[in-house]
Specification:
506 residues, alpha/beta, Aminopeptidase, Glucose Oxidase, domain 1, nine-stranded mixed beta sheet, eight-stranded mixed beta sheet
């Protein structure tokens, strides 16, 4: 052989070796060599048209806003379970079913009720102002039935915490009165003292304190159909707009917003009698026997050892029901539920075998106070030590980009999501670190995180138009079908990559 020919063969050898090395590294990125043709075949079965059909179904009147505990919620859960069964996912709930049942009381709003205000004068005179639903007030989602007519007493954030030297009821007699309460806390600095304040941010705690002080009713400032409240016999309440709060303050020498700001700045109570008489009527039907379910299904792994490791992907199926207006809950969280369904369908019908098992959980009771996720973490269907991680989807149905909360904290997990996006979706991807939530938990992800699970959140970025949560304007029209399709595809590909990776834990 000539020297030049030998040199050429040597160059070709090193080039080929380099290509093999690059190929090996590419395979190691996702932990396996996967048949791309089979991967893409299932990938392309996910369609925005199908996903939107599921959205139309779940937001329809027959499910009446999917209030957890209600028969309508269970009908929605049964519909989703039927789809999972149709696609071939294995039931993983109670007694071989798709349902993990748990107790949760609920209230039916019989009508929107009535709210009026009258100034208290010595001669009993005073102009009467009648308010309108839904512009001025929403009925309480867990209020008792009845009519209460009494003076309104503003008690700030409704906190009675002697241990914090902050008592907004001190020196006030609210027995038989209607208290006016702000949501949240006056103290927001997340320092060593903050955890002592947090319990007083819970809606139920504010109601409990009002009830213990003998209040007959409550006006909760903030026009939100809030199911994360509690039912108390004989206690009537509703949610009011800030304009109603302004009316309560009118003529008192105080202004609502200024008064609230003063509490926040001075951390001193600013409670007072308003001199206004409120008449509030609500008609409801309380059901303490209510039950709801997490819908749970699995695509089982094939590896004799790794199949006992589970990747959990979940999002809440429930919405806030019907308070006189049907709350579709399209973005919050029909979108996340449907994204999960699309990914579950593709993974179950894919010809690619996975080593680890993947569990899909459509969670109930989120809007009522994170009941379903709390119940799961207290009664896990898979041992926690066998659960690699939990991914939470909430409001992943509008936008242009993708996000993976907690991705920077778990690089051996997030690299598969990054690769899936870079190779097949090409969306802008934002990742962040996993940070513990110090305040009142507001998502199922926080419940899993606090229970000791590696928790990440799947979301979207770059909202298109206005979006809403717990609002009658949260309708199908606010969704972006294209991003929903890509989120479902992203979950499917990433799940395949993770399920077949050599290792996911540092």
């Amino acid at each position: 052989m000539t020297r030049n020919f030998k040199r050429s063969r040597l160059i070709l050898f090193f080039l080929f070796s380099g290509l093999l090395t690059l190929s090996s590294r590419a395979a190691q990125t996702s932990g396996q060599n996967l048949p791309e043709k089979d991967l893409l075949k299932a990938f392309h079965t996910i369609s925005s048209h199908d996903l939107m059909d599921y959205v139309v179904e779940l937001t329809s009147k027959k499910y009446n806003g999917r209030l957890s505990g209600s028969p309508e919620y269970m009908k929605a859960a049964e519909w989703t379970a039927a789809k999972l069964k149709e696609w071939g996912l294995k039931p993983y709930g109670d007694n071989g079913t798709y349902f993990q049942m748990f107790p949760i009381p609920y209230c039916v709003i019989k009508n929107t009720g009535a709210l009026s205000l009258q100034a208290i004068q010595k001669d009993g005179a005073g102009a009467l102002k009648t308010y309108s639903f839904p512009e001025d007030f929403y009925p309480g989602m867990n209020t008792d039935s009845g009519t209460v007519s009494a003076e309104a007493v503003y008690v700030g954030y409704g906190i009675s915490a002697p241990e914090l030297k902050f008592d907004e009821y001190k020196g006030l007699d609210v027995k038989g009165k209607i208290v006016v309460v702000d949501s949240s806390l006056p103290y927001e600095k997340e320092d060593a003292v903050f955890p002592k304040w947090v319990p007083y941010s819970f809606h139920q705690k504010k109601q409990e304190i009002a009830y213990k002080h003998g209040a007959a009713g409550m006006l909760y400032i903030g026009l939100v159909p809030n199911t994360n409240t509690m039912w108390q016999k004989g206690f009537v309440y509703c949610h009011i707009s800030e304009s109603v709060a302004d009316d309560l303050f009118a003529g008192t020498g105080r202004a609502y917003k200024e008064n609230k700001d003063r509490i926040n700045k001075t951390l001193a109570p600013a409670s007072f009698r308003t001199g206004k008489k409120i008449t509030l009527t609500q008609e409801t039907e309380y059901h303490p026997e209510g039950r709801a379910a997490n819908v749970v299904a699995v695509v089982e792994g094939s590896d004799p050892v790794l199949k006992d490791e589970f990747i959990l992907i979940g999002g809440h199926l429930d919405a806030v029901g019907n308070n006189g207006i049907l709350m579709q809950g399209a973005l919050d969280n029909t979108s996340g539920s449907v994204d999960i369904m699309g990914a579950a369908m593709a993974l179950a019908q894919s010809s690619i075998q996975i080593k680890r098992s993947v569990m899909f959980v459509l969670i109930g009771g989120e809007e009522n106070g994170l009941f379903g996720s709390t119940f799961y973490t207290q009664h896990p269907l898979v041992p926690k030590e066998k659960t690699v991680c939990f991914f939470n989807l909430d409001m992943a149905g509008n936008g242009m980009g993708l996000s993976l909360g907690g991705g920077l904290t778990y690089p051996k997990i997030s690299r598969h999501w990054e690769e899936a996006n870079n190779k097949y979706l090409h969306r802008t991807l934002r990742m962040s670190e996993s940070r513990p939530s110090a305040g009142r938990p507001r998502s199922d992800g926080v419940i899993f995180q606090r229970a000791g699970y590696r928790t990440l959140s799947i979301g979207t970025t770059g909202s298109i138009g206005k979006t809403y949560a717990n609002d009658p304007r949260d309708t199908i029209e606010t969704l972006t079908p294209e991003i929903m399709e890509d989120v479902a595809k992203w979950i499917y590909v990433s799940a395949v990559f993770m399920a077949n990776a050599d290792s996911l834990i540092d």
